[in-house]
Amino acid sequence: MQDATTSRSTSRSTSRSFLATLAAVAWSFAGLRRKSDFDRDVTALNPVYVIAAGLLGVALFIGVLLAIVSYVTR
Prior knowledge:
Layout: H1 2-13, H2 18-30, H3 35-44, H4 47-72
């Protein structure tokens, strides 16, 4: 029991970079995330980075959709 607590606390202390968070969020948007990667991300990703990456991803998605609609309706 003590080993599980120790490993959990050490995995939380290793946070991932913003670029790694962007990659994790991009794969999650596509729906191609493995369960093992998701479990690792739950403990390692910074919530602020996840929110920022999600907002950036949504803005990019909306921008691409607007560009496609603008191109098609010309």
